[in-house]
Known about the structure:
Blueprint (H helix, E strand, L loop, with lengths): L1 H27 L15 E3 L9 E5 L2 H6 L25 H4 L3 E4 L6 E4 L3 E8 L5 E14 L4 E8 L2 E10 L3 E2 L4 E6 L5 E3 L4 H11 L5 E2 L9 E2 L9 E8 L7 E7 L5 E3 L8 E11 L13 E2 L7 H11 L7 E5 L1
Parallel strand pairs: 12-14
Antiparallel strand pairs: 1-4, 2-3, 4-6, 5-6, 6-14, 7-8, 9-13, 10-11, 10-15, 15-17, 16-17, 17-18, 17-19
Amino acid sequence: MKTLTLTLAIGLTSILSNSTVTAQEARADASSQVQTQFAPGVVTVIPPAPDPKETFDGPLTLQSMIDAHPEIQWENTGNHEGGKPHFDPRSRTLQEMLKQVILRREIYSFEFSFKPLRQIYLDIPRPDGRMQRKLVQYMVYRVRYRGGDMRPAADDLNQPIYRRIESVSYNSRRVFPMMVLEDHESGKQFVDRILPTAVDRIAIREQITAPLYNNVEISRVKIPRTKDEDAPGVWGVATWVDVDPRLDFFSVNVFGLTNAFEQDGEGVDAPYRRKALMLNFYRPGDSMDQISDRVRFGVPAYENEEDQSYVLKKYGLDKRLDYRWVFR
Length: 328
């Protein structure tokens, strides 16, 4: 009897030990977590939207390079009649080639999903160490990497003329999000704040059983490539404080879902704009009892053309759009 009892105890210990290891391994990989299955319509999914035009810039004139190296000017490189090369056309000189440069790059893009934007009162630590109760705007979101990155491809490596775009995928990628809440009434912008004390409260309220990361922590997590529509993905939360309580029409600009950008010209002074996902919201209500006010996704619709035109002007639109990709 003692032998049987000892055998059962050893077996039970082994099972518990293996279960602990398995649980620890599962927690280490955020993408292996299974979260609550939400009802249809609760989570809004925005598919990735890479554009082949984003894989190159140009032709550009690299004027900063020309100005920094006057020695490459063909007129100063020897005794050439009329400043022309002996054999090659003038367009093949380094100076002329710097006036027709095409810059190419690989473009990636993530799928972005989110739950409705909500408010919650939380105790926020102040610089003096004390706690202060504030209203926090937050949005819980999910990121998934679908692969299908775009990059220019050459048909002949000996003659690298890029005439096509090829699709490439990697095992995983990392995301570096930044979310800016833009009030279309006042024109003010609010960058998301990192509130470690808020994450657990929000996870419980939103029924997120998978690990929930803030916008800094999620950058350390590898987003695995998946084609599964039911893949759990990696969950994050963005939080904003000190937002105007009279907020009515606003948008959330999500940066970091893609590395696409636009630049006017070249050099440090050339305007640079990153591609962002603009999510439009409106909040019917007032500054009283804000937690009871429901934030709605999209641009509100009005039967009166004058009212509709007024609202569209607030969002900078000529027609109703729930979201759009912009360069900012």
